[in-house]
Amino acid sequence: MRIAAPHEPGPEKTRILVRVQGVVQGVGYRPFVYGLACRLGLGGFVGNDGRGVVIEAEGDPGALNRLVDALTGQAPPLARVERVDVAPLAPLGQTGFSISASERSGPRTVLVAPDTATCAACLSEMADPADRRHAYAFTNCTDCGPRYSIVRELPYDRRGTTMAAFTLCGPCEREYEDPLDRRFHAQPVCCPECGPRLRLRSGDGTELPGDPVKGAAELLAGGSIVAIKGLGGYHLAVAAADETAVRTLRHRKHREERPLALMVADVAAARRLCEVDGAGESLLIDAARPIVLLERRHETGAAVAPSVAPGQRSLGVMLPYTPLHHLLTAAHPDPLVMTSGNLSDEPIAYRDDDALRRLAGVADAFLVHDRAIHTRIDDSVLRVSRGAALPIRRSRGYAPAPLTLPWGFPRDVLACGPELKNTFCLGRDRHAFLSHHIGDLENHETLRSFAEGVEHMRKLFSVTPRAVVHDLHPEYLSTKYALDYGDLDEEVELVAVQHHHAHIAACLADNETAGPVIGVAFDGLGMGDDGTLWGGEFLVADLAGYTRAAHLATVPMPGGARAVREPWRMGAAYLDAVFGSEWPDVAPVRAMAARRGERFGQVVAAARAGLNAPLTSSAGRLFDAAAALAGVRDVVSYEGQAAVEFEQMADRSECGCYVARIESGAPLVVQGGDLVESVLTDVGAGVPTPVVAARFHNGLAATVVEVCELIRRDTALDTVALSGGVFQNVLLVERCVTGLEAAGFSVLTHRRVPPNDGGISLGQAAVCGARDRLR
Amino acid sequence: LGHGSGGLLSAELLRDVILPAFGPAAEPDRPLEDAAVVRLPAAEVVMSTDSFVVDPLFFPGGDIGSLAVHGTVNDLAMMGAVPRALAVAFIVEEGFGLDELARVSRSLGRAADAAGVRVVTGDTKVVGRGAADRLFITTTGLGVRLPAARPSAGRVRPGDVLLLSGPIGLHGVTIMSTRSGLGFETEVGSDSQPLHHVVAAAVAAGGDAVHALRDPTRGGVASALNELAAASGAGVVVEETALPVPEPVAAACDLLGLDVLHVANEGCLLAFVAPERADAVLAAMRSCPESAGAVRIGRAVAEHPGRVVVRTGIGAERVLDMLVGEQLPRIC
Ligand SMILES: [Fe+3]
Ligand SMILES: [Mg+2]
Ligand SMILES: [Zn+2]
Ligand SMILES: [Zn+2]
Description:
The complex is a heterodimer of chains A (775) and B (332). With 775 residues, chain A is α/β, with parallel strands linked by helices. Chain A has 5 domains: 14-99, Alpha-Beta Plaits; 112-195, DHBP synthase; 198-369, DHBP synthase (Alpha-Beta Complex); 402-511 and 759-774, Nucleotidyltransferase, domain 5; 517-750, ATPase, nucleotide binding domain (Nucleotidyltransferase, domain 5, 2-Layer Sandwich). Chain A is globular and about 90 Å long. The relative contact order of chain A is 0.09. Chain B is an alpha+beta fold. Chain A: This is Carbamoyltransferase.
């Protein structure tokens, strides 16, 4: 509302009540309002309560309007103002302005900020030898530092964080209490006198003397593996140039070939390793400080050992995001491998005793501190696609900031997400609280953190789920969790959402639109509504429902999950499906048969007998078959490796294109086997693999366009949403978008949540909310 | 075999084919009555029943007849009982061969005799084509509980040692391989065998410290352990590297992408034993030929009540759940 001047001129004042909602606590919002009100000569007060910031202000109407405008327009960097409500009050004649203490009672609807990279002001203090926080590894302020990872409960004040263990010293307390100080009510505020301390320990736990950071840097330079306690968990670090050290790390961590992330000192250092364009740079320096996958420069030379990212065209690079990282990269200026502190398959370690135990056989030394981590949070990962972020993993720096949707949730929702790359999502009002990355639920520790995470976030955001959403897959541990939840609480309604519908709904929610669209959901596997495993789907979908308009022809997956680890099995399955008993006698088939020996015939026999060979229409498995038959690799050591390498090797300049037949019917059936047959023909004729890879990508993209055109003919829909893990493939995304736009479609891709299963829970919640709104 | 209009054909079948084939296990000199009188000592009587439907009917290491004996004998044994008497009911599909029926009956009789259990009563029905798949057998067993035995699914306690009496996966792999002609059936056979001697030895050595026994049949070790964990509220940890998996079973599981812990067994048992008696019970089990390969594979824990986890070779803990259906891939 606009505040009108009183009808009668004179000294009369106006008083208003303002309520500000969003991420407005722990981000310097009250001092910002205080400073503003003082400058505008207003009387009144500003305070926090369970719903956000409350202001009562009194003064002249022009000044009050300027205050209200500035509440959104000039908010502090970490604040996210979602709503400002203004109501008139009777003037009291108050002239002074004050900040009132936090109100702990009442409903809790405040948003907790994500953890944020160290700000420039804090960095310059750390660099100043005269400053009392010179070189202090836990420097932070209202604009930066740990947030979600240290919050135990709301309201967000020091008592509710793991900083409660540290008593403020005199100078810190004065900063904390001074509304005009940039550390006013910065909950993690501390200094070398009163705050957490670093320690360097040897592998057996004994403390090493001297400066911990310098000591760690020397160990790293000498080829040691150092476990470093970060913001959301432990990292394992080695010098990136040291091939022996990197190999030792891989060996001890049981991590075979999956690429390792790097930390470099600054953008200039990133540029020495990778091509960094404007989009890449802005993602690197974003306050969330994600790992950004950037194309590797050819002349990288010796700065990055071969084992860091074998067979990869790109490197995962991040910049320092805690004071400790800044100190460390200053002491060790060359790139560091910074990979999650865990054994392969295990979640990242974050509790000190647990980390020391689990990483004892991996790390030679531990750089640790005594500020506890309450919630384990992995680094976020992004790719750059068409000049913007394509999220691969949305976690530290982003979670738990909600996605604000154009629609409300009529009742509170818990969406339990998928089995792998799990995130869960809470829906309340217009907010979808997408959790941090949880991981693969089959791991017991991960499953435990899933259950604990649900409880923690439920309490933080006062969500009482009345609807609990699960996948159709009966064996997902998240599905079983949902069913148990329903058993324990009779008022909870269970809602099942098909996996690929959830993918498309996630893309719609990401783009804040409700559809209907032509949804192209390409991924590894998800349970279909007909009992087969889907994954190459064209759905005519809106948030509430879908029809399956087209899909890839099904083939058996010999050995079930084993076929995912051994892409050659999909090669064999496609050969059998395409050629029946008369396989072509061409070089790639002979080569695969020779490589696999007697197993080859056995797998075909098992597929024919239908022994643990479920049928799938998966696009991911089609990629596997093509990559395996092209000779890229038979067996993967991490999920999607064959497809990733197939993308990376593709010759970007190649325009040739394979063709797949589309069989009419409802649904349409796409003969993916035609693409595989073309791969065989070209490989047999000696066409180089990069050209084959490009033609495969081009052919699949052209098929997507063609199928969408056929669906448009029936439905008149001209918007296409691309989702599913296969659309992490930037080349495929680019070819699909180019082709679709040329055909007159507008295209929705992912910008804020991953196209992979990390986005499933958002889609599940969105579907449930949409169905609720229809009731 | 024709479809009997009345009881006559079925009775002839019993008299001419089945009973003679059973041999001494059916006490052939006894007159045929409507029901059997079983004399049991004054003790706890244990009773169990199970139906057997297996494809193929004949497989390396056994057939549906021997399986019908071992299945019920073992269910009795898991309650700490010595089996004494069996009732047997056949449902035969019209058109099923008499010679095959006789072969199954002979095998059933031999298995009962070898297990020291009498077939005291039974029934035969012939049903129309398609109303059954060749041959179904139901057996009901009576046994007498060993005085010291108190095994129960509800008695697993944190700290208990988990013992396994022998190699796993043999029965399931044999059945799958025989059914599909994959070739592993030349290397393996079903482990189908009676286990009450093993139980007797274990109870003699451990008494009521033998807290729980279960034979991991359908659904394999995974289902059995989840049932015990759910019934007792204890958590279970299995050491993957300690599992005895015969090489051909491992190869077949690798080929078929199956987790051996979900594969069926018919001749081994799981035992939770109080830690102080575990070594003695393990030694007693190893002294029986049926369980010479007994090993310690894990323990019950107080953490994660009701949940079973497998510790892998590198120390990761994987959730081992019961399958709702078949083993469908969960990977996206
Ligand atoms: Fe998926
Ligand atoms: Mg049974
Ligand atoms: Zn700062
Ligand atoms: Zn201080």
